[in-house]
Write the structure tokens for this entry.
Amino acid sequence: MKATPVRILYLSQILSHDHPRRAAFPDERLTVAELFKELNAEAHVVDATCEALPDPRGYAGVMVGGSAGSANDTEPWRLRLGEWMGTWQDVPLMGICGGHQLLARVLGARVAKMSRPQVGVHPLQLPGIPDFTGWVMHMHSERVEDVPPGATLWAEDVAGIQALRYPGHRWTVQFHAEMPESLAYGAGRGLGATAESWPQREVRAAVSGGLALFRAWLKDLR
């Protein structure tokens, strides 16, 4: 018998259509639907840019996705989201790219512009995740500069901090573990990736590794 799907709150930071960079990003409702179908999980997607943020205690955990802006930006919705993330520190969480950066900044770390964007597929080791392939997809121009108080450095590469772990089953990663192959190429090209930096074999490995990461996170929530 198939297990009952676990219910996750997904907070999107890029669904708003009035952002000037919005066209460079995929529709996250489609991305999340494909991801959660693969994971046998249910997602309640909330547009954090314009919708009220729910009480997360009605969900097994929370995912906070990437952003079209910066964790240092001061739009009212971003400040509300940062405050919300800082308040609910006892709720299991997975932060992705902008979600990774925003939580780190809220908890006292610096987030700063990189000398050059990291876009494409890159090698990375993520200890403790069964079946992690060692490849990840990057699409970011800022990074977390230091480890926030209470967090543990989980992974880093030549570009800096790539993953952090916090108490309470709260994991955050700089790379895009959530993006399916069907959307990766267009999103990568929109942010400057070349064919050489986006090879199909490594993209597929990164997608597989992302699923392995999410399965490991969900395992303790079921």
